[in-house]
Amino acid sequence: MRPDDPFDDAVTARAVIAADGTLARWSEGARLLLGHRAEEVVGRPAAELLADSTGPLPLPADRWSGTLVLRHRDGGTVSVWVLAHHRQPGGDGPGEWLAVTPLEATDHDLPDDPLVRKAVFQSPCATMVFDQGLRLRGVNDAMARLLGLPADHLRGLRPTDIGGRPQHSELERQLRHVLRTGRPHDMQTHMKARAENHAHAWLARLAPLTDRSGRVRGVCVTAHDFTEQFRARERLQLVNEASSRIGTTLDVTRTAQELADVCVPALADFVCVELLEPEEGEEDTPARLSPPVSLRRVAQRALTDDTPEAVTQVGEVVVYPEDSPQADSLVAGHSIVASVPAGDLDSWLSADETQARRIEKFGVHSMLSVPLQARGTTLGVAAFTRFSQPEAFTHDDVLLAEEVTARAAVCIDNARRYSRERETTLTLQRSLLPRTLPRTAALEAATRYLPAARSGVGGDWFDVIPLSGMRVAMVVGDVVGHGIQASATMGRLRTAVRTLADIDLAPDELLTHLDDLVLHLSEEAGGDSGPGEVGATCLYAVYDPVSRRCTLSRAGHPPPVVIPPGGPALHLELPSGPPLGLGGLPFESAEFELSDDSVLAFYTDGLVTSRGQDADQGEALLLEALSGASGPLDETCDRVLNSMLAPGGATDDVALLMARLRGLPSSQVTTWDIPADPALVAPIRKQVLDQLAAWELLGASFTAELVVSELVTNAIRYGAPPIRLRLIHDAATLICEVSDTSHTAPHLRRAKTWDEGGRGLLLVAQLTQRWGTRHTTEGKTIWAELALADME
């Protein structure tokens, strides 16, 4: 035992009783009082010390005081006043009791000044005096009533003996400070009157008491009750804290957890938040409010990790029967306070043995159930439970719980509405994005789309569009704003890009037309009040696998990244065009020759700004993540997202499109220069048939011969030299292209019965998979695609 252990003193008799009723500790003061040495009584039943040892020691688990007759070692009896300290509900540790006897005169006597004694003991304030040894020398009637103990029995106790609370340990520390410095000190503390069931808040003045020589001989403690002001301040602080801590996100579960966190331990020892389950097929309509009520627990918080484990875990559904506080408060539409000692829960607990055992185990004595209501709709219930705090829920506690819960209910309702809108927007967004990418001989592609984790779903999109001549277009765009309007605008722009791409516009021309469309959309969105705020960025690229050249143009969009085979990733330097929707500014294109197996990466700005960093830092990190992208593209996409995005998800929408380019071997392409002489069409047909035989495509010979004859004849008759014929094929497609320098495009028409011509293009359209015309700077190209699978 330590020399400075306050348990071991010769003034106050102390003993500790273990949970099994045996004596666990025995102080020197107890030996002097009763004559028993520690080794004689420790480990033996405490009841043996009673003068009448036939009955049990009358010390309940809760705090108790009174007079007992104990047996002295010499056979005599000693009447003592006993103070048994409070034991925590459900605890199995020892309880402490003290046998208090009158003090002997010591050298710590206080100055015998009548004025001091009159000021101390006739003061209307609760007053007590401690000597230099921190022994209580006297109290006035007001302090005795506060402590709920007889004034004569308080002499000799330490501050921690009075209540055993941490606040009294702080009082003892401050008393020592006043004794040491001789300066008064003010402090706040809590003391509980035995006659009441709640603690008081006191503002205590600690003043030194000195003798005639100026030596500090004691401390006078004067306490002023400011419980109501203190509780009002605590309630205001909790409301302020709730307004700042609840509703920080638009997430239902997070908001409910914030409500539980704020209220423990300030208002309750255990809080759980449960929401009503919606009717089947009616997502926005909660279940009918009639017992039994099904609730899903979405959040809970306990005082400490080792205090009540919930019968129902977060995410589980519990059904509350009639007479339960949760069901009653939901049906009644107002708060319900239930007290266990009063029997308010008997009907419910008799039907739920698990809850009954839990309440008994942890000493739950008071429950408060508050319905969560917002905008005329009942969302669920918040249940508050007390077991460690001895006070039951008061009317002020109910008002405070309703105030905090009302704030949380609005935030939860906002989160539910936002979640529904977000899910609707996300469904629309995903329906407008391509579900699968087309399989082409020119490239292999992989994509990823991630909506923003916190802000609303935006208007990011991507697309891969097959073009004539086995070329392929790649596009990535980002619409300004979030929500359904941004997703709808994205869908309109993606459709427009596909339409413009179908007529084979050059990238810079396509962006010019798209810019005009965004201007029109902005005017429509603004209406009569002026232009709206519709804007977007876009990057459009066309790759030709025959020439292995890629033409790109961008409108306010981040530049793409190219990863050459075996080389480091680098940005393609493109002219920076203005974002779509500004109007009046031109767009420029850039052309690059790319080797086989080069990888192009297109992305939106949400990928490089997700960690709150600037775009330059994000792009440098992206180059590092893309370096050495030689594996499967799907794995590369996942690796890039994992390295670029924060653990909590993207702060803005992210679209990523990666394409590995594949050039077409020269053996699969043949080109002829055609003289402008109709008589040479027959030899051209013969050369085509020979080439098809060399490619082992004899099944397509008849159709290809007919299509080539018609396209070449039209070019000779209506076009302008030079004329060129090109055949391209892969495993699935044969393409016939005839180019000339005339800009006049042919039109498909139906010939009348007596017309001698006009059926050629109609016949081509019927025999081929698709056909069309694309304009170039030198003229035009008429092309037709034949599906080889249909000709086997």
TrEMBL record:
Gene3D superfamilies: 3.30.450.40, Histidine kinase-like ATPase, C-terminal domain (3.30.565.10), PAS domain (3.30.450.20), PPM-type phosphatase domain (3.60.40.10). Pfam families: GAF (PF01590), HATPase_c_2 (PF13581), PAS_4 (PF08448), SpoIIE (PF07228). Transmembrane segments: none annotated. Residues 16-44 form the PAS domain. The keyword Hydrolase applies. The keyword Hydrolase applies. This is SpoIIE family protein phosphatase.
